[in-house]
Design a protein that fits this description.
This protein is α/β, with parallel strands linked by helices. It has a single domain, classed as Dihydrofolate Reductase, subunit A (3-Layer(aba) Sandwich), CATH 3.40.430.10. Helices cover 27% and strands 32% of the residues. The chain has an eight-stranded mixed sheet with strand order 5-4-3-6-1-7-10-9, sandwiched between helices. It has a two-stranded antiparallel sheet with strand order 2-8. β9 and β10 form a beta hairpin.
C-alpha cells in the first residue's frame, strides 16, 4: 500500500504562510532543495488543493535552461508526476497529467493508496487538513525554518490530536531542520 505524505516548509511557530499569505521566508537554498527533490522522487501522484496547484503550476512551463541543477531536477519531478487537483472553482486543469476532482472523497483516496505503485504527496493546508481528519496521512515531513511569523496559515489543523513516531531528522547549513514522523 502506498503512503500518503504531507510535506511543507514551516516556520518554527507552525505556519506555512504568514498572515498576509507570504511565504518568501521559506524559499529553500540549494542544499535543502536537493534534499526535497530526493524525497519528492518517491511520489507518483500529487494531491493538491486549488491554491497550492496554482502556486506549483509555475513549474509546468518553466524554462530551466539557465537554472541551477536542483531547479531542473524538480521541474522533471513535477512533469513526471500525476496530479489530482481538488477545486470547485477551476474549470479545467492547465497542467499535463492532471485530473480535476470537485470534492475530497476519503474513500477514493483510501482506494488510491491501496492501488498506487508509488507514494502519494498531499499539498495545501486545507486539503491536507481534510486528509488528516480522515486519518489518511501516514507520514508528516516538516522543514522547520529558523523564523517565526506570528500568525497565518497553519501546517497542522486545529482540533486534531496526533500521536507521532519520529522517523528521521536532519540539519542543514542554513538553519533549517528536517523532521519526519509516522502517524501511529
Amino acid at each position: 500500500m502506498a503512503k500518503l505524505i504531507y510535506t511543507a516548509i514551516t516556520s518554527l511557530d507552525g505556519y506555512i504562510a504568514d498572515a498576509e499569505g507570504n511565504f518568501d521566508w521559506s524559499a529553500p537554498d540549494e542544499e535543502v532543495h536537493a534534499f526535497v527533490n530526493e524525497l519528492e522522487r518517491q511520489a507518483g501522484t500529487y494531491l493538491l488543493g486549488r491554491r497550492m496547484y496554482e502556486v506549483m503550476g509555475w513549474w509546468e512551463d518553466l524554462d530551466t535552461s539557465s537554472e541551477p541543477q536542483v531547479i531542473k531536477d524538480y521541474a522533471d519531478i513535477w512533469h513526471a508526476a500525476d496530479k489530482i487537483v481538488y477545486s470547485t472553482s477551476l474549470t479545467e486543469p492547465v497542467t499535463a497529467r492532471t485530473r480535476l476532482e470537485r470534492t475530497f472523497d476519503a474513500g477514493a483516496v483510501r482506494a488510491l493508496k491501496a492501488s498506487a505503485g508509488r507514494d502519494l504527496s498531499i499539498g495545501g493546508a486545507a486539503l491536507a487538513a481534510e486528509a488528516i481528519k480522515a486519518g489518511l496521512v501516514d507520514e508528516f515531513r516538516f522543514f522547520l525554518s529558523p523564523v517565526t511569523v506570528g500568525a497565518g496559515k497553519r501546517f497542522l489543523p486545529d482540533g486534531v490530536g496526533l500521536n507521532l513516531e519520529q522517523l528521521e531528522e536532519r540539519r542543514f547549513g542554513n538553519g533549517v531542520v528536517y523532521l519526519s514522523y509516522r502517524n501511529r
